What we know:
Elements: E1 2-4, H1 7-16, E2 26-29, H2 32-35, E3 39-40, H3 48-58, E4 63-65, H4 68-73, H5 75-81, E5 86-87, H6 95-98, H7 100-110, E6 117-120, H8 123-133, E7 137-141, E8 150-153, H9 156-167, E9 179-182, E10 188-197, E11 201-203, E12 208-209, E13 212-214, E14 218-221, E15 226-229, H10 236-256, E16 262-272, E17 275-282, H11 289-293, H12 301-309, E18 326-332, H13 349-353, E19 358-362, E20 365-368, E21 371-374, E22 378-385, H14 389-402, H15 416-420
Parallel strand pairs: 1-2, 1-4, 2-3, 4-5
Antiparallel strand pairs: 6-9, 7-8, 7-9, 10-11, 10-16, 12-15, 13-14, 15-18, 16-17, 18-22, 19-22, 20-21
Helix pairs in contact: 3-5, 7-10, 8-9
Amino acid sequence: MLLGSGGRENALAWSLSRSACIDELVAAPGNPGIAELAEIVACDIEDPTGVAGLVRRARFDLVVVGPEAPLVAGVADAVRDAGVPVFGPSRAAARIEGSKSYAKALMERAQIPTAAWRTFADPDEATAYLDEIGPPYVIKADGLAAGKGVVVTAERDEAVRAVKERLVEHRFGAAGASIVIEEFLDGEEASLIAFSDGSHVVACEPAQDYKRALDGDAGPNTGGMGSYSPVPACPPALVEQIVREVIEPLVRQTAAEDAPFVGALYAGLALTSKGPKVIEFNARFGDPETQALLPRLRSDLGEVALAAATGSFGPDTKLEWSPDPCVTVVLASGGYPGPHQTGHEISGLNAASVLEKVVVFHSGTRREGDRVVTSGGRVLAVSAMGDSFAAARARAYRAAGMIEFEGKHLRGDIARRAEQNEGSL
């Protein structure tokens, strides 16, 4: 059983449906793309008791949890208590995403390199600290904000406004009741996702995410406008260093604190001149990084997820990957991440989906009769493979151009720098 309804879960469903060890795949609540790959059932996936009851009645062999909210709510705990293996961390382990300040303190205890930081609940104290550290400013809502709780700016007025939105106007509700202000980390960013069975770690290849809404990294932060993998700026030796200095210490620390991490651990990193430093941890697969990673994965995801969920990794467990790059372009609703309209009919899905080495993952869509319409800010993720970044980009943008809906917005520079630096792979 797969829990979730976004583009990440569509990619997980696509990969799990190809697994040799899975006979039947069920998803809740799903979306039109997932419905082509799995049986859909109705379920409130943030209700631990309800999910555990459904899992027990249906006698599932494995549950894979996609989004963060069910993990922070304790769904994985309830399913484990029902005796079913779960690929996803406990509520205690998921606090690394549920609370930025908790994650920062945990990194300090584990001696994991990260930005200097302080947490605030008082707006005047937070504003005074902004003046103390100077620009650029990084302000984060402490709790879950769907990737939209972070502001990075060189403008003091914008930074002060971000503080007021969170601590005075309560724009993010309980998630913004306290904030973290931290040191700005320069250098190229990369995402590294690793699977953990609670003690052993198996790293994926790196990916790079594009958080800003507009080309050239302009505009507001979003949940992610595109991704690509592998990352020329993060070669295998650097991946090994990140695993050694970031991933393994985190897994050891959570185990030592009686919150062993089981599932997909996401490290968002800045590749600084002083080495890699953690920007944030997430307690699950990234979105849209998953849509760029899984098309390259040659290993059986079902087997890997079951091994992680049952504590069956060995010291020699490894993942196999295609050497070919994958580029993922997100198609968003006009106005995203701000107010945007939904309900617009989407055309061109079939034509784009049949292109060679192209997969279209649904993120914010719903079916109305024979039509598929927009239902969210990020609508689709178009992923394409190629024997070079140039070939993968060309395929992804060709497919993206075949899909139309009112207000469609996309960035035109996903993986452009990787294409320009092609020779360094």
